[in-house]
Amino acid sequence: MAVTLSTVSCGSHGIFAFASSSSSASPTSTKTTNVGKFAFVTNFNDAKVSTLTRNTTTGALKRVGTIAAGAVKGPHGLAIAPSNAFLYVANVGDDNIYQFAVSLTNGALTPLSPASISNGVGSGPEQLAMSVNGAFLFATGSGKGTITAYTVNTSTGQLTANGSLGGFNTPFGIALHPTLSILYVSDAVTGLIWPLTVGSNGSLSKNLPGVHSSDGTADAPGFIAIDSTGASLFVADKRLAEVSTFSIDSTTGALTAAFTFQNGSVNDSPIGIGIGTNTSVEYLFTANQGAPGLGVAGSVSSFVATGTTLTSPPTQASPYNGPLGLAVDPLNLFVYAADSGDGTVSQSIIKGTCGSALCAGPKIATENPVNKNSAPYGIVLSH
């Protein structure tokens, strides 16, 4: 969002609709030259955030520059304001949320003043989600098992803490329902997916039960994706090569565990996840780390999604090198993954010239000079 890009439909999704890198609601896209113009990537090892411009016709990326975002071995998830004017980065290494102004000309980042806000000592913020109106931001805190809410000054971009909700083990993935005031959080140790109620002021409460995957061994859920209708939730397990699906109650937002689907090799490790619709077909995508020692290359999987049902086995684009975060092009033509193993971002093409549902495309280094050890983690595209 994670980390995946949320792609928001042209219709109304309510004030709490998700707008971050951890999940996705698929759009009905209208081609414009500015949609998805910029990509932003966190580099975990050297604590830099990279800006890249994107050719919205070819999908090609071009580096703009990098900027520091706190402690090394820290930057994880990102979220971008609906206006594209502000970017937020969670740093698990120093417990801060970093806030930047975004140049709408070239995507260059400038720290706000102050440049960061503490998420709480030892909280370990990892992933972020933002409401579609830009008024609220939410952060998972794996260190203390908390979800922290922030209000956002939509004019200046400044964050103000708005309380934390505890009682989780290791919260990780995070996504907002497209129409209901419900925030979903995956717990990467208990395996539970928690629906949280979002108040009118952005405060959080735990009114609904956490629900486990129908696979009792799926205890390491990663990023979350929700379909465009808000009827189905998908999560990839970070240890098992499978995707778990849940149906969502249209009134309350409560979850019911549905099916699980094999995701390629049993030695694969899917984390990033996202949804996009191309020529009226809805696809679910996962970023799979692979297992180099076992001869399994990293890849991006493409499932056809119908409700909580996925067409399995998926089509896979590879080889990639340890992809983590994943973002779907708002125009539903391309999928991008942060390749942690070689310091790059990979581009996959939906229904490309290879004749498959997903074709492997070019890669670009996130830094110049090239740093193969920068360990890209999260990725988000502008709206």
Give an overview of the whole structure.
- By secondary structure, this protein is mainly beta.
- The chain contains no helices and 30 strands.
- It has strands spanning 38-43, 48-54, 61-68, 75-80, 86-91, 96-102, 109-118, 125-130, 136-141, 146-152, 159-165, 171-176, 182-187, 192-198, 204-205, 211-212, 221-226, 232-237, 242-248, 255-262, 270-278, 281-288, 298-306, 309-310, 315-320, 323-328, 334-339, 344-350, 358-365, 376-381.
- Strands 12, 13, 14, 15 and 16 form a five-stranded antiparallel beta sheet that branches. Strands 21, 22, 23, 24 and 25 form a five-stranded antiparallel beta sheet that branches.
- A hairpin with a 5-residue loop joins strand 26 and strand 27 (334-339).
- The protein is globular.
- It starts with 37 loop residues before the first strand and ends with a strand.
- Residues 1-33 have low confidence and may be disordered.
Blueprint (SSEs and pairs):
Layout: E1 38-43, E2 48-54, E3 61-68, E4 75-80, E5 86-91, E6 96-102, E7 109-118, E8 125-130, E9 136-141, E10 146-152, E11 159-165, E12 171-176, E13 182-187, E14 192-198, E15 204-205, E16 211-212, E17 221-226, E18 232-237, E19 242-248, E20 255-262, E21 270-278, E22 281-288, E23 298-306, E24 309-310, E25 315-320, E26 323-328, E27 334-339, E28 344-350, E29 358-365, E30 376-381
Antiparallel strand pairs: 1-2, 1-30, 2-3, 4-5, 5-6, 6-7, 8-9, 9-10, 10-11, 12-13, 13-14, 14-15, 14-16, 17-18, 18-19, 19-20, 21-22, 22-23, 23-24, 23-25, 26-27, 27-28, 28-29
